[in-house]
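Methods — Computational structure assignment.
A single polypeptide chain was analysed. Its primary sequence is given first, followed by the predicted tertiary structure written as structure tokens.
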Amino acid sequence: MNMIELIIGENGEIVIPDEIRKNLDLFPGKKIILYEQDDSIHVIPSDKKASNFFSQFARQHNRILIIDSDSDYNEMLHERVG
């Protein structure tokens, strides 16, 4: 596990260090999932495992969430974010 302290830019941007980008196969244009939990910000790559992640998250927090596919996830995300 890599941990690094970063400085937030004027517009809220952060730069993910090259080593972490390589380890997680992050590249310009790749979608990521950003969520807040317990005074922390978590960033995970968005790929075909997204529905599994959200289902596991919901079970851990005693919330009911059924996502049948990544397209359902994308639809829900579009409804919430636009």
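Note: The mean pLDDT is 78.
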